[in-house]
Amino acid sequence: MAQRRMFSLQIVDTDAFMDMPLSAQALYFHLGMRADDDGFVSNARRIQKLVGAADDDLRLLMAKRFILAFSSGVVVLKHWKISNYIQKDRYKPTLYQEEKGTLYLKPGGAYTDHPGDGAKPCIRSVSKPDTESEHPAMPTGFGNVSSLDTQDRSGEASVVESSQVENNISFSVGGDARADAEKIAADYLSSRGLNARSYLGVTPENLMTVSVYTDVIFSKFTHRPPTDTDRANVFQAIHVSEMDEHSHSFRVTFPKDRIDLLMYAFEQAAQAGKPGDWRYINGVLGRLAQRRIGTLAQAEIYDQEQEENKGGYSI
Fold first, then answer.
1. What are phi and psi of 286, to 5 degrees?
2. Domains identified in the chain, total number
């Protein structure tokens, strides 16, 4: 493995990157330093523990798609080829050719797990190949990085048109409900340009649950119906993907503490005159994460301390 790695300001100087906790940023750099010549890392969790990062830091990098995860436990730095150009005579193909074979390379040099927008399938390496097509010397045209990776979007199809909770599918009756939910989930992922592998353990029921939470939160704290982007943002904010140690399969859950803190962030945005403003909401959530505040009670204690110390507060 090479001893030197590069990091492009096109990536690490974006708001999406800088808004993350310093611990998540540091974990990204450590993963980059240990990645192979194609940007793959096989021991991300070991590196996370080695550098003292939290599980949430790794999840945040996955949620914001700075890294892409595979079911094998391997991860890849999405923008590796934008940051690093390796000469052909020094390049060593990754050992993780199966994972690489599921990826596509976008014209600007970023990996994606979804075809479209001119993205080409990554070629599996069997020897020392001519890698110029996969290692552009001067990558150009990199757009803004967002928590939803909007560069990968392929359409604007609506998932749930109504903002009313009672219009959502009930999974308690009929066999057709499952089929309907499967179609809604497939349409949702397709319209967002997402691949199910990016959200290990996600189910149609998960997506419908998020839709319900989104409708309720927006009805309480905003004056507009939620969009598909709002639902995706809510999913990013409240979900946890965990591996079952016995079955070795992933499952997605929505801890109440995460839902409470999201509503807290919506409340703060509304009080600031910016109801439903995701830039403000994500700023609140990011600062809560930086202070390791994981419950509503901890947030309220912090508020009280700020008021007592400063006669006011701004989180």
1. -65, -40
2. 2
